[in-house]
């Protein structure tokens, strides 16, 4: 019995020493690694023109679709803003070619990119607050920090992977339709959004429902992409979507950012798992 108790005490001592090493050394090594990865992610979002400061450089992307050539164009992305959009639309009914582009004094902020960047910055701030001189005293303290960092990273990733659902009146009221020269025809709506590593443009062609129409009017709810037949009311008119054109372009640095988020979340979870393993050795939680 005495030998067994001695072995248990020796085992406990070894485990406690390993846990102290984990808190004092390995945790900080993981935090350094996380900061390095997230700084790389942050650089992708800022895309500086020269050095580490200054305005984000402009990048041109060609819109394309494998299913249709009704919409073609070039988008100019500058950080979290579309600084130019030059689009050609072939009207399906009469093959009329429409051309519209942003007015020179206009830019369109992509809130998804801005929000994702802000969440990355907040995660970096949380990590920087626990520098090398900081001594973690309990595992619970580490778990709390990891949960806070993971929350910011999950929110950053979700902003890119989950576009906002908008009603057609919300798209019409967004102000985007008033940014073009020449002005968009009254029967067109456009919407830009991020989906994973792609910048997407959707063009909705509309037609007015006549008061004598026998169609059962059912306003469409919120959606990322509305389908032909979706109805809505705007001003004094009832409108229906007749055609939908979606085109997109891949933004490579958005893909980089998503990879960095995934790797960082994995590192956080691995550290949480190591901390939690030690709790299984004790019936009480000394951390």
UniProtKB/TrEMBL annotation:
Query: Could you mention a single GO BP entry for this protein?
Result: positive regulation of cell population proliferation
Name the InterPro entries for this protein.
RAVE2/Rogdi
Which chain positions lie within coiled-coil regions?
A: none
Subcellular location, record wording: Cytoplasmic vesicle, Secretory vesicle, Synaptic vesicle
Q: Which Pfam families match?
A: Rogdi_lz (PF10259)
Q: Can you tell which superkingdom this protein's organism belongs to?
A: Eukaryota
Q: Which GO terms describe its cellular component?
A: nuclear envelope; RAVE complex; synaptic vesicle
Predominant location: cytoplasm
Which family does the record claim for this protein? Belongs to the rogdi family.
The protein's matches in PANTHER family, at most eight in alphabetical order, are given as: LEUCINE ZIPPER CONTAINING TRANSCRIPTION FACTOR LZF1, PROTEIN ROGDI HOMOLOG
Name of the protein described by the UniProt record: Protein rogdi homolog
Query: Which lineage do the record's taxonomy fields give for this organism?
Result: Eukaryota, Metazoa, Chordata, Craniata, Vertebrata
């Amino acid at each position: 019995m005495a030998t067994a108790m001695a072995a248990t005490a020796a085992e406990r001592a070894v485990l406690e020493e390993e846990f102290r090493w984990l808190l004092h050394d390995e945790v900080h090594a993981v935090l350094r690694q996380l900061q390095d990865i997230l700084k790389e992610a942050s650089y992708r979002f800022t895309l500086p023109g020269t050095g580490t400061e200054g305005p984000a450089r402009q990048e041109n992307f060609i819109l394309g679709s494998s299913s249709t050539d009704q919409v073609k164009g070039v988008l100019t992305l500058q950080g979290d803003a579309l600084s130019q959009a030059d689009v050609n639309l072939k009207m399906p009914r009469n093959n009329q070619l429409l051309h519209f582009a942003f007015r020179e004094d206009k830019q369109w902020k992509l809130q998804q990119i801005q929000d994702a960047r802000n969440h990355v910055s907040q995660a970096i701030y949380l990590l920087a607050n626990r520098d090398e001189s900081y001594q973690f005293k309990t595992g619970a303290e580490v778990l709390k920090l990891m949960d806070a960092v993971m929350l910011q990273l999950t929110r950053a990733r979700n902003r890119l992977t989950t576009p906002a659902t908008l009603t057609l009146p919300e798209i019409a009221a967004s102000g985007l339709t008033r940014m073009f020269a020449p002005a968009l025809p009254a029967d067109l709506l456009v919407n830009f959004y991020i989906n994973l590593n792609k910048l997407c443009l959707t063009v909705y062609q509309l037609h007015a429902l006549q008061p004598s129409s026998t169609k059962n009017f059912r306003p469409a709810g919120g959606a990322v992409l509305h389908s032909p037949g979706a109805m809505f009311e705007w001003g004094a008119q009832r409108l229906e979507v007749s055609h939908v054109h979606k085109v997109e372009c891949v933004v490579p640095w958005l893909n980089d950012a998503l990879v960095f988020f995934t790797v960082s979340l994995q590192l956080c979870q691995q550290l949480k798992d190591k901390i939690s393993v030690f709790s299984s050795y004790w019936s009480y939680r000394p951390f």
